[in-house]
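Hi Y.,

Following your request, here is the sequence exactly as I used it, all 251 residues.
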Amino acid sequence: MPRAEHPAPGVAEHYDRHLGPVYSWMVGDFAAACQSTAEYFDAIDLRPFSTRVAVDLGCAHGLQAIPLARRGYAVTAIDTCRHLLDTLSTHADGLPIKAVHDDLRNFAGHVEGPVDAIVCMGDTLTHLATMDEVVALLVAVSARLAPGGTFCASFRDYSAALVGPSRFIPVRSDDERICTCFLEFDSQTVHVYDMLYDRKPGGWTMSVSSYDKLRLSPGWVIDAAGACGLELRHEAKSRGMLHFAFEHRAA
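Below is the corresponding structure, written out as tokens. Let me know if you'd prefer a different format.
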């Protein structure tokens, strides 16, 4: 089996070169995924109330931006992967979504004044390089949210290291492609290997790329957010993903 293996890139390069082109396939039914997000927003009663502006950090191809726009927000959607932003623009179909090609840490430079909601979902928070960067992002989120505004974050709990075969995670497969993930745990990070197998005319090919995620614990995130004026008001777990909704307390 022909194999292409790349040295560990940063998150942006990993998505540009490896995951971005197959991300829509990995997610599967886009409409169903958007509906699931919309139901979560219903559960936390997320509605425009003041500026009617929302920001989607690490927006990918629109799983949060589309439901936000349909709820009446003008959405600024930020991602480093051009391929995913192009797909988002196709899905937007006239909805009030501004796609921005930039690092999510620079989001404040792309919005004016306070916003009603900021979301950072789909394990994106763990893509930051250090815990200090997470704190800096929470500070920036708090500074940009209107009083009473909502910050939604979702991520996987990597605080307990997986061992043995449990580190192999099947993502999706069909007759033409297989995606499997392998996790390797370090003290502060988990090294993620994404393995793609594609059927070609001459047989199957395999490509591998990897990057690091932070091992964030739920308690640490809740405490760090609270120190930034973001008070937890809802938490849930779905398909291994932890979901937290925080409210910005007025100073």
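The chain is about 25% helix and 35% strand.

Thanks again,
Q.
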